[in-house]
Write a structure and sequence with these properties.
587 residues; Nucleotidyltransferase, domain 5; six-stranded mixed β-sheet; 30% helix; globular; exonuclease; Exonuclease nef-sp; hydrolase; exonuclease activity
């Protein structure tokens, strides 16, 4: 053909052919709409492997566990903060592969040996190495917060909290790790005798000692310039002054709704000063359509926002005028509030960090529980949602208590060797027991949220929602997963078979083991990367295993890969997610 000649025009479709093509495309679209779909929310985007490495904010193993639980049980279990999983009810199977002794760096530096894996997974998220909290990957995954349903059942099955804990199906945060048990048998607080000698002007610790470092701000997912936050974010001041121990503190709390694009829309904000006086309160009209008012938690209803004209920009200006240039912002997991406010601030005290009941950074206690335990204050009633004025005041009370009693007070991370410095074991268990069994004459105790205070076995929860499971585990992990895997018939009515546990030390034999187990709701595999082989053979075997597991997974299945990191706790892991869908030719 003459190179200068124009290309031949494609033959026009007849009206009948066009109609048939249009019908096929419509049918294909309808089919694909029934397939599950994973989407990162604003809180998860900074952890994405697509983000620049030096600006990532890794997620925790608890975040990843939430993804697994959501894929198996749907939205009934967790309020997910970093992802959305659409059409979760149509998930045919969840396949989880957990691998020890491999890090994100191993994959990034050896991409040529993960060719099959990279064809399956387009993206993933960086994950903090659990060893940074002194936990093995298996221990971190083996436990899950209890559900409200289990809390109700405990009241029917057991006569006391002690009986429930002794039975071994429920675990207190105090017993989560071995080091947490040290020093907990003392019936009185170490600091009781110190309090007599304290005055307001003679604090045991200072404000600046409680502030988060720049590294903590980044790893804690706080809005930080240059770390995955959009240009709309503003600084609370144009210019700051050096912070000192005399700098004023302001506790801030926000309530927000979930917008249609997956972002959070600010709906209400309150600020309290360190004299426990309210200094600011406003309702806000989100700038995007609202998908979910989250009334159960936020207390926000369409009626409350009716007629509200105040915008996020106006709220930002109000706060910029209110705060002095050396102000310290106080909050409980304040990152979420600052994200909703779209503000940067350098001086932060986070009560969820300075008070730690578990000894694990990623397992933070709720403000409601801390306020009840340390301040004997009842907040966040179940039938009314949260009040930001009340929450801000409670947070400031906790920080003032910390300043009075010292850095070690209420922080198990700082007391792993020297013993617990805080309320007695009897008081802690008493508060938990009252929330379940009553006995204090206060109905408000029954509303206490215990999800981060009492734990249950991960596989106990899976069975409690009638999902079948096969667990293939390396012998080294079996002793962590197996105990109490059989479900308690009094606590749960389970219609599925018990978890099937198979020990398998050889990675290349895992796929073969699964050939007869294709009908399980959850396929959970925990293995370890073999010792380094010549020509990176150990990485090639892992790549092949991932491909084999994906191939045998049915359509609409969700595959989750977890690399836990290395023995060196500074080497982080990763999590990759993919929903299996047909190709265009297969529809």
């Amino acid at each position: 053909m003459d190179q200068g000649a124009p290309p031949e025009k494609r033959a026009r479709l007849s009206e009948e052919e066009y109609g048939a093509l249009k019908a096929r495309l419509k049918a294909r679209k309808k089919i694909l709409q029934t397939y599950p779909r994973f989407k990162l929310l604003m809180a998860g985007i900074p952890a994405s492997l697509a983000s620049p490495k030096d600006s990532r904010a890794p997620l925790t193993i608890k975040d990843v566990q939430d993804l697994i639980l959501c894929s198996v049980a749907g939205e009934a279990r967790h309020l997910n903060r970093w992802f959305l999983l659409f059409q979760a009810q149509h998930i045919s199977q969840t396949t989880v592969l957990v691998v020890d002794n491999i890090s994100l760096t191993d994959m990034e530096e050896n991409e040529e040996h993960f060719s099959k894996t990279l064809e399956i997974f387009e993206d993933g998220v960086e994950m903090v190495n659990p060893k940074s909290d002194g936990l093995s990957l298996s221990v971190a995954l083996a436990y899950s917060p209890i559900t409200n349903a289990l809390k109700g059942r405990m009241r029917q099955v057991y006569k006391s909290l002690k009986e429930a804990l002794d039975d071994g199906h429920v675990y207190s945060v105090m017993d989560f790790t071995d080091q947490n048990c040290q020093g907990m048998e003392k019936s009185t607080s170490i600091v009781e005798n110190k309090k007599e000698n304290l005055t307001v002007n003679n604090k045991v610790c200072t404000k600046t000692q409680l502030m988060l470092s720049a590294l903590q701000l980044i790893t804690g997912h706080y809005p930080f310039p240059g770390h995955g936050r959009p240009q709309e974010f503003r600084f609370t001041k144009d210019k700051y002054e050096p912070v000192t121990d005399n700098s004023p503190m302001f506790a801030i709390d926000c309530e927000w709704c979930l917008c249609i694009d997956g972002s959070t829309g600010l709906a209400r904000v309150a600020i309290v000063n360190e004299n426990l006086q309210p200094v600011y309160h406003a309702y806000v009209l989100p700038d995007r359509p609202i998908r979910d008012y989250s009334t159960k938690w936020s207390g926000i209803t369409p009626q409350l926002l009716k007629g509200v004209q105040k915008t996020l920009r106006q709220i930002q200006e109000d706060i910029r005028k209110l705060l002095p240039p050396d102000a310290i912002l106080v909050g409980h997991s304040l990152r979420g509030d600052l994200i909703a406010l779209q503000l940067f601030h350098p001086y932060i005290i986070d009560s969820s960090v300075i008070f730690n009941m578990t000894g694990c950074r990623f397992m933070k206690s709720k403000l409601q529980f801390l306020s009840k335990l340390f301040c004997n204050r009842d907040i966040q009633p179940a039938n009314k949602g949260h009040d930001p004025n009340e929450d801000a005041l409670s947070t400031m009370e906790l920080v003032l208590l910390k300043l009075k009693n010292g850095l070690d007070y209420g922080d198990r991370l700082r007391n792993s060797v020297g013993g617990w410095n805080g309320p007695s074991r009897e008081k802690i268990l008493g508060v938990i027991s009252s929330a379940i069994f009553g006995g204090r004459g206060s109905r408000s105790d029954e509303n206490l949220d215990l999800q981060d205070v009492l734990l249950m076995k991960f596989f106990t929860f899976i069975q409690s929602v009638d999902k079948s499971t096969i667990l293939i585990t390396h012998p080294a992990h079996d002793k962590i997963y197996r105990p109490k895997t059989p479900i308690h018939s009094g606590l749960f009515t389970c219609k599925t078979a018990p978890v099937k546990i198979v020990q398998q030390a050889e990675m290349q034999s895992i796929a073969t083991t699964l050939e007869s187990e294709s009908n399980k709701n959850l396929v959970f595999v925990h293995t370890a990367l073999a010792k380094e082989e010549e020509n990176k053979g150990h990485l090639k075997k892992l790549d092949q295993l991932i491909a084999d597991l994906y191939k045998r997974m049915p359509m609409r299945g969700v595959m989750i890969i977890i690399f836990g990191g290395k023995e060196n706790s500074l080497e982080n892991g990763l999590c990759m997610i993919n929903v299996k869908k047909p190709t265009k030719d297969e529809i």
